[in-house]
Each structure stands twice: as structure tokens, then as C-alpha cells.
Amino acid sequence: MNIIRKIFIFILAAAGTGGIGYLANLASGNPLFTQSFWGLLVFAALLFVFNFLSGRITADNDSLKYVKRQLGFSAAFSWFLGVTLVLGYQIRCLQMTSGGITGKLFILFMGALSGCAIWPGVYWLFGVCGKFKTGNKHITSKSGRQVFFIAWGIIFLCWIPVFLAYYPAVMSYDFNMQSVQIFTGLYHTHHPLIHTGLLWIFFRLGECMGSYQAGMAFFALFQMLILSCVTGYSCTFIWRIFKKKLPVVLTVLFYGILPVHSVLSVSITKDVLFSAFFLLFLLLFCEREYMGGKNNAGPEAGMILAGALMILFRNNAVYAFIPFAVFYIAADRTRRLRTGVICLLTLLLGKGIGLTLQYGLHAGTGSISEMCSVPMQQFARVGFLHGNELNDEDYARIDRYVYDEYWQRYNPPIADTVKITVAADGIANWEENLAVTVRDWLITGLHYPNEYLDAFLYLTSGYWFLDDVSYAEVLGADLEGRMGILYTFNGSASSAFEGVETHSLFPWLERQMEKIVSANSFFHWPVLSQLFKPSVYCLLPVFGLLVFLYRKERKKVLLAALPLFYLLTLLLGPVALVRYAYPFILSAPVMTGMILMPEIKSPSEAPLA
User: Fold this and answer.
1) 594 near 286, Cβ under 8 Å?
2) CA distance 338 to 333
3) Which of 170, 224, 365, 581 has the greatest number of CB atoms lying within 10 Å of its CB?
């Protein structure tokens, strides 16, 4: 038995080395790794780690049942990560994935080999999450309030210098189009009307003050107050879980210092407030389900309000909330009616206010082009790669939805170059007959399945490929364009609202921040650069889901459900950007805290007042 075990360990180490070698060779473009001394070092390191783990597993006979579960779940997640790495490196280095059934089996096989190298770390993580113990001191509501106000104040103060650096605000992304709507009075639902309405209020406030610039500054401060309040609540939640200062300090630093938070806090884009309400909903959900708020109407009323605002600030949020609500109601056996009422009121309030704003402002309906981003990219990729060799039927079928003059505008990581041009010429063919559109999309996909898959993978890699860089370089990365990981250019409609200009009150800090968020200097930061990657945060609820299933905490599966359902809507979007993934980044401490909390020590603890 001992010999068999050693042979198995040798095979695992060799497999892991082969997987790393394949990825390294892809990244370098030549078989440098497999012909170098590094391969031998990796093999020796894996052999040592597998031997060490084997000894620990063999010695832990008393909990063999749990060891088997840990082995199974960690292996599943390792294989999943391995496959994503293989897919990601193939589309980055080869510009396509291996084709055909044989090619896809090869990807699964190489994913398994790569997963062998990842598995020891993942196995250790599952062990940590399974055995981690929270403190058992009872935390009073008073101490919770103290932590809340201290954290809120510190985070807000940390953002003030960045506010001065980008004074009056970062006016990029959709700011220009929304300000034009306000100037002309012609509103549409492509951008959430509640956010456009808030922008109108602060424009009018600035008008009354004699300075549109001052109005935008107050908008930024208003947004900073809301976001810092919710993140302060998140810090309090971490305090109540761990009962220790260090996790709270790390959470405050995460929110207060990380440039993603500080720059987005002063960015006038709907994603910031949406993410704040997303996090607030998750916190109140945890309050109701796990922190002694079951019979308290406060968390339930807060959930309804936060959920409604979440739906109002992102049009795609409703598509995530509906399946979550169904899942939530089905899982809550003891309070199914009460939970159903909460979910129904959330939907009615969110959609009701949205429709009221639409009719009150006589707003037009937004284009469906946003929802068609993936199929547009798939049609465009087929035309881009095979335009000269398409038969007449395929040519006509693709040209019906993405005109041939736009095929060369195909840009793999972003659909806007195709989406905008098609929408400008009209997308009647997409709307006239949905059944015909789906039929044509399926027929083309059957003819070019690999191109369809690759178009989807390119468009979404920022959410699942751990070594992706497109999320920070999709439109370039330089100080002049100010479009690196975050967009900080001034996109204001100056002809409509004169004086809406950027005037930094802290130029030195602005220059330093621009090096990070526009020139992407964080790429050169060891370890810390991982904190900027959307994929790290998007994969966290996937890991959390497996941990909850591994620990048989079926109730906590609900906590991962809403982020995962929302992630599915992002996978149908036009591009993978940090601002779209911001809900996952903002809620990462809460998700991490729940992953590390296998049981609640104080179920009767009073909720945060």
C-alpha cells in the first residue's frame, strides 16, 4: 500500500508539473519551461508538498469522512480553476481555443493536469475554512455602533484627499450621455432613470449656487457618504464575526486605501451606488438569516428597500433577483410565506418606482443592443475570421444582423465597437422576429461552434481568468487617454453645461493616482496587484458556494446565490470592466467572513442599530 501511495504521489507531481509546463510554454511562446531547470524544481516542490499532505491525511483517520469531502470538493475547484487557466492562456496566446471534440477533451485534460498543481493550496484552503473558529465573546450592540461610526469616519476621511485630487468628481463612463438627457429633457431607460434623476438634482443645485462644478462636487460627497456608510456597516459585520481588531483594521484599510474604492467613490457612475445597495442587501440578508434578526422587522424592511434600490440602479439586477427570490423562497421552509412577501414587495417597489419615473419623465425605452452583446460578437467574429470564405447563405444570415462593413471592427474583449455601429443603423432585425433571430443564431453557431465559444470567452475573460489583463487594457492604458483599469477622463457635455470641468485641488496626488488607474502601474506590484483583478472577486462566491456545500451549510448557499446569479448577467454583457464587477469587490470582506465562519457563536446577538 505504501508503494502504491508513493507511485500515485509521483504521478500527481508529474501531472502538476506537466500542467504548469503547458501554461508556461503557452505564455512564453516556446517550450522554454519544459527544457529548463525550473521544471525539475517545480516537480521536486510538488513531490514534497504531496508527500507532506499524504502524511497528514493518513494520520487523520478519526475524521476520514471529512477528509474525503475535503479531497472531493478541493479537487473539483482545482479542476475548475485549471480549465479556466487553460482556456484563458489559449485565447490570449493562440487567439483561439483548441477546436473540435478532441480539442475540448484536450482542454479538460490539461485543466486536470494544471489542477493537480493548484490542488495542494486549494486543499489547504478548504481545511482552513472547515476548521476556522470565530471568537466566542458576546459583542453588544453598543460596541457594534462604536465600530460602525469609527470605521465610517476613517473610510470617509481616507477618500477626502482623492476627492480633492479629482475635484469636483470623475465625470466619465456614461456621464456625457446622461447630462445630454438632462439638457434636452429627452430621457430614455438605457441608463437608470433614478441615477439620471439624481444627476439632475445636483445639476440644479449647482445652478442655484452659480456653479455646475459645485453641484458635481456635492454629488461626489453625497455618494462618498452613502458608500462609506455601507462599508462601515461591513466593517461592523466583520467585527461581530471575528471579535478581533485585526480583521476590522484590514477591512478598513481595504476600503479606505485601495485605489479602486477611493477613485470609484468620486466617480459619477450608476455602478457605485448600485454596488453600495448590493452590499447593503447582502448585509441585511445575513442580519436576518445568520445574526439573530429572524424575528426583527428591521432587517426585512431594509432588505426590501435595499433590494428595490438595487433594481432601480442597474437594469440587469432584476434578472439576478428573480431567480434568487425563487431560490430563497423554496429554501426557506419555515418562513416561506414571509420570505415570499419580502421578495415580492422588493420587486414591486423596484419596478413600480422605475415605471413611475419612466411615465413621469416620458422616457423612451432603451435599445436592446446591450442585451445582444454576446451574439453580436459571435456573428462579428465569424465574419471577421471567415468573411472571404462564407457561403452565400451564411454570409446573408450574418449580414442581416451585423453588417459586413462592421466585421473588421470586431474587437475581441469589447462589444461596443460592433454594438454601437449596429445600433446606430438600427437593430430592427433583432427585434422583428425573435424566433427567427434565435434560429439564425443557432444555425450559424452549429457551423462555427468554436468561433462562438471563443467570442464569448474573449468577452468575459476578465471575470474568470485569473491572469487576465484585458479588464485594464480594453481601450488602452496611458496617462493621456486616462482609460486604464478605471476611466478618469472628463466626459462632461461642456457645450450643454458650461463649467463642468475638472480642476484638481491636489495635483500631486492626482498624478500618483493616474499612474495607478490609467497607466496600470499596479501590474508591477507583487501580491498586491491581485487585489485589483475582477476575476479574483468574481470567483470568490464560486469558492464560497463549494465551501458551504462542503460544510453542509445549505442555508449559507443562499448567500452565494445572489452574487452568482448577478455574475451570470455580467457574462452576457458588452465588456468585463472593474466597475461592472464592483459589487463583488465591495462585498468581498463579507463573503470572506462568512466563508471563515462555520458557525454562529451568538445567535441571539442584537442586530446593528
Assistant:
1) yes
2) 10
3) 170
Instruction: Give this prediction's pTM.
Output: 0.92
Q: In whole angstroms, what is the distance from residue 126 CA to residue 111 CA?
A: 20
Percent of the chain with pLDDT over 90: 60
The CA radius of gyration of the chain, in Å to the nearest whole number, is 25
- The per-residue b/e assignment along 507-525, b for 16 or more CB within 10 angstroms, e otherwise, is eeebeebbebbbbbebeee
DSSP-assigned letters across all residues of 420-439: HHHHHH--HHHHH-HHHHHH
Q: How far apart are CA 182 and CA 202, in angstroms?
A: 11
CA-wise closest residue to 401 among 355, 344, 343, 442? 442
pLDDT for the residue numbered 73: 92
Q: How far apart are the first and last CA of the chain?
A: 59
Q: At what angle do helices 245-257 and 588-595 cross, to 10 degrees?
A: 160
- Local structure of residue 46 (DSSP, 8 states): H
pLDDT computed for residue 422 by the predictor: 75
Contact 213, 503 (CB under 8 A): yes
Mean pLDDT of 474-490: 87
Residue 192 vs residue 128, higher pLDDT: 192
All three cell numbers of 207: 445652478
Residue type, 460: T
How many residues are given for the chain?
609
45 grid coordinates: 516542490
Average of per-residue pLDDT across 394-399: 90
Residues 6+ apart with CB under 8 A from 392: none
DSSP letters spanning 442-468: HHHHHHSHHHHHHHHHHHHHHHH-TT-
Name beta bridge partners: 188: 364
Task: Out of 254-263, 390-399, 461-470, pick the least confident.
Answer: 390-399
Encode pLDDT of 539-556 as tens digits. 999 999 999 998 888 888
- Mean pLDDT value across the chain: 88
Distance, in Å, from the CA atom of 295 to the CA atom of 125, rounded to the nearest integer, reads: 34
Q: Considering Cα of 582, then 585, then 590, then 595, what sign does the dihedral take?
A: positive
